[in-house]
Amino acid sequence: MDKEMGVVLLKLVVLSVVAAAVLGAIYIPTQVQLKIYQQEQKELALVDVMPLADHFDPVKSGEEILFYRALDADNNLVGYSFFHDQTGSQDMITIAGGIDTEYKVTGVKIMSHAETPGLGAKITESAFTDQFIGVAQSDLMLSKDGGAIDSITGATVSSVAIIDGIQVKILEIKANK
């Protein structure tokens, strides 16, 4: 009986070691591929939020990218694009945004969030994000406060988080352009 128990235990240990080795071997290339995918998604988002741009020039503070200067084919400035992490109702919301040279929003895309499904998660829907297009900084507030943005019913905190995130980046762009 003890010998059988030892054999079973040995088999479990060997199986565990093999499984750990396989998972470790898969994890490393998967992480590399994930980083490539995330970079591709960021590049696509820049184009989505600033469709007039031909290419983007990062504006840095040290190693950190603050925002991107959006340039046309002739290297004329057409606006700015950015990524920003803003605290939402549940967790951080990663926003991609674009503004033209007059600080009017050209596009908004939600890159990631953990907002409540069916409520705050509606921040990803075009019915919400499209209302930002063409809105000047001075009108970038909820309609109940005199602005141009209608909040999502039951998700005012998430709606305000997007507005606040865009406002923060506009101020940062103005200070660093």
Explain what this protein looks like in three dimensions.
It is built from 3 helices and 5 strands. By secondary structure, the chain is an alpha+beta fold. Strands 1-2-3-4-5 form a 5-stranded antiparallel β-sheet, sandwiched between helices. A hairpin with a 5-residue loop joins β2 (64-71) and β3 (77-87). The chain is elongated, with a radius of gyration of 23 Å.
Biggest pleated sheet: 5 strands, antiparallel
Gyration radius, in Å? 23 Å
- Portion in beta strands: 15-25%
Helix % is 40-55%
User: Which structural class fits the helix and strand makeup?
Assistant: alpha+beta
Count of helical stretches: 3
Task: Give the topology, please.
Layout (H helix, E strand, L loop, with lengths): L1 H48 L5 E7 L2 E8 L5 E11 L4 E9 L4 E8 L13 H4 L26 H21 L1
Antiparallel strand pairs: 1-2, 2-3, 3-4, 4-5
